Amino acid sequence: MAEHALKEWAVTVAALAEGAQVLIVRKGGIGEKRFELPHPRFFLFPTYEHQRPELVKPDFRDRFAAPLGRRDDPDELPLPAYAEIRSAHPIADPDALRAIDPLHILTRDYAEERLRWRRKHPLWAVVLRVWRVADPPVLRVGDEHRGCVSWVGLPPGIAARGLVPALGDDAFAAAAEDVAAALAAAGVTG
């Protein structure tokens, strides 16, 4: 079975792999009409080009300084994390976005800007169960992996092996419940 990868800022991939968050907020790339979730399980593909320290909450800038310090995408990329979608919630109003603000590392201003971009499409709050890959496969990045898109296909031979949970079962369940409770309090279901 072919593997796929979701492109996400390297700082967010690091936070997910460390268990600092279980939530991503996504609207898709410039090269896409809308963000979709066609794959239930996938590698996380760290990207560096567009991430900026000022878009990450100050408390997390030092903690994740290494991925934040890089600006260019490499030609060979280790794939250090694997994920499974546990829930996905469309966010259409700022109150719901504010409710989940404490549950991710991005600044409120950045998240609100993403919500306003392409207003007719929702911002997605996606809860991911994440595993670190003990011996990460290295992807030779080609033209088919570049550009502002969310999903990329991976070549044969790249497989998820040696997975170590970012959070134990109980810690993950508690973090996922925090997201569900915050969204429910804001009137979001899904």
CATH domain class name: Mainly Beta
Number of helices: 6
- Judged by helices, strands and strand pairing, the structural class is alpha+beta
Largest sheet: 7 strands, mixed
Unreliably modeled segments: none
CATH architecture label: Roll
> Average pLDDT, to the nearest integer?
88
The radius of gyration over CA amounts to 16 Å
What is the overall silhouette?
A: globular
Approximate strand percentage: 25-35%
- Terminal Cα separation, in Å? 28 Å
- H/E topology pattern: EHEEHHEEHHEEEEH
Can you tell me the number of structural domains? Answer: 1
Number of strands: 9
Residues in helices, as a percent range: 25-40%
Looking at CATH, the homologous superfamily is Hypothetical protein
The name of the CATH topology is Archaeosine Trna-guanine Transglycosylase, Chain: A, domain 4
Describe this protein's structure.
The protein is α+β, with helices and mostly antiparallel strands and 190 residues long. The chain is 27% helix and 27% strand. The protein has six helices and nine strands. Helix 4 runs antiparallel to helix 6 (169-185). The model has no long low-confidence stretch (mean pLDDT 88).
Summary, kept brief:
The protein is α+β, with helices and mostly antiparallel strands. The chain has one domain: Archaeosine Trna-guanine Transglycosylase, Chain: A, domain 4. The protein contains six helices and nine strands.
Which descriptors apply to this entry?
globular, Archaeosine Trna-guanine Transglycosylase, Chain: A, domain 4, two-stranded antiparallel ribbon, 6 helices, 190 residues
